[in-house]
Amino acid sequence: MASSSDSTIMTSKVVSPASEDKAIRIERANEYPHEVWFFLACLIALVAVFRLLSFVCSKMFTRNSLSSQDSEKGASHSKAVVNIRNLPLALINLYRVVAFRFTLDFGSYSLNLAEVVLTMMYMAALFTWTFINTTNVSGGKFDVSYWSNRAGVLIASQIPLITALGTRNNIISFITGVSYENLNFLHRMAARVVFVLVWAHAGAKIAPGLEATDLKEAWLRCGILAAASLTSLCIISLRPVRARAYEFFFYTHLVLVLLVLVGAYRHTENFSPLVFSYQTYIWPSFIIWGIDRIIRVIRLVAFNHTYFGFDSGAGKALDATTELLTPKCVRLTLKRPPHFKWSPGQVAYLITPGVSSLPFESHPFTIASYDSHMSLKEITSSAASTDSDSNTTPTVSYWKELVFLINVQEGFTKRLADIAARKGSVKVYLDGPYGATHNLNTYDTNVFIAGGTGVSHTLPLLLDTIEGVRSGKSICKRVTFIWCIRDPRNITWISSVLAQALSITPDSLKVAVRIYVTGSSISNSPDVPALGYESPEATPSISSVEVDSSHTPVFEKAQETLPIKNQDNVLVDNPMSLSAFVNLPSVTMRQGRPSLTNLLKEEAEETRGGSMCVAVCGSRSIASAVRKGLQFPVSGPLTVLRGGANVSLHVESFGYA
User: Fold this and answer.
1) Strand partners, 485
2) Chain Cα centroid distance, residue 368
3) Strand partners for 351
4) How far is Cα 477 from Cα 525, in angstroms, rounded to an integer?
5) 301 pLDDT above the threshold of 90
6) Is 628 in a helix, a strand, or coil?
7) From the CB of residue 444, how many other CB atoms can be counted at a distance below 10 Å?
8) What pTM was estimated for this model as a whole?
9) Which of 16, 167, 260, 268 keeps 20 to 30 A from 237, CA to CA?
């Protein structure tokens, strides 16, 4: 009995460490994903709080500054005097400059410090919880059995987050106020970090060697399928691939995501402990994806119900007219659906079965028109009273209808251009609107900067500001509209709507339209004798900013639109001549690239004691120039403490990361 007892004790001593290791590994594999999610929840809440505080403080201190603004401007306002009451605004501006206007450039990639910090924090969190506490009970450090399976559980726990960040309708966007297109960066970043963890997890299993019998296991084959699919996703999601073959990326992405989810679900089935199933991390992704699709379907039915025979004009009300403005620009105009409302700068997804490769292929474009609250009579009568001698027809479509200006690339846009060349019509399903909204009513000065096709984002903002001042909702006193184009003839894209907007601008609002031609010489234009443009010598500071709009098939930035008269008697736009437009009092035209740094500095000086909003949409280089122009000292905390302008910046760029 004694020897038997001793043998049992010895066996216990040999088996116990392995059993204890396993119990510890399971406990930590169950607990650490919960801790990671607690960290992420706190991070999301922190972002939401920062945005809320920035919004509240800006509004509160902007209103406070209005009461004293006139007296401060009238008095001898010394820039050396520090006003301690501006300290909250100074801190907000410091946060804005450091977080969003300082960038790190990696070739064609550019990340602001907020994106860099979020990326580093996410990486640090996942890798820390993967590799901490990996010493086994025998004292062996960095035990692979401790971190390899834990990495797999952490990967599974992040799949719902990655899925949510990639959907158009998600709760994270609702909580933080960050638009889904900006969250798309985090979607790609999280997927790439998880990709590294996937191969750390897989490598730990592959390194010792796999036997032929192992590949017969369904769970292993499903794991390999999920890892291979995620690897392929990370490759095809790189910017060069997406830019040159977006449609290939779009459909391949859809298939590979499904393979990742199904493979991961079946793979985790074999490792789920009795207390908690690791599949619980996977199946919510299907629900998130399904809810997003259901919301899209509801939008489609609500805004496109004429296609389903609910109205007498079914099949025609949402037919869109097309026109090829230039070889690289298509204008698409359609009657606004009932109940469809949008804000300036938002985008809509267009589904055109007759043009797309697949029936429900959707493409996002910026809405170049403005959802006006003015009546048709008010718009037309105001324009007629001021433009009686201009022989132009009021551009009502820009105030009442949906207008898109589409940059022609390959694939879908190339096929659409072929139809537009024949001035054909296409059937369109509409999904949207999406994207952030801008409330510009509380700013004293608004500066809108666009490069090329990016003007479709800034034009509605200008129209919104003018209407806000007319209705008494906006306190804006000054607007500067800057547009950089390659060919002076491109001005006719929006010349009529700009002329009409200037004609209805109240006297209390000063509007300056500045056109910079960076490509073809103005002298090549047929209207050059009548232009009277300012020569390059008149512009002593010309930056080296490239102002050409970047090519992006994901958000093919709508270019300016002019309405067309069709069978439904939609009012047309009769584009005014280039010379007539440029000779308007508020319009200046220059050859060369603008010195955005000097321009922004001048605008900030004019707005001392008040608030200024800058909205920019264009290439990465023009956005970078604007960010640099609004760094220290123009928008620094010391400048704000001394009565400088409180500056907000909104950058719209649809490039790839």
Assistant:
1) 517
2) 16
3) 362, 429
4) 34
5) no
6) helix
7) 23
8) 0.82
9) 268
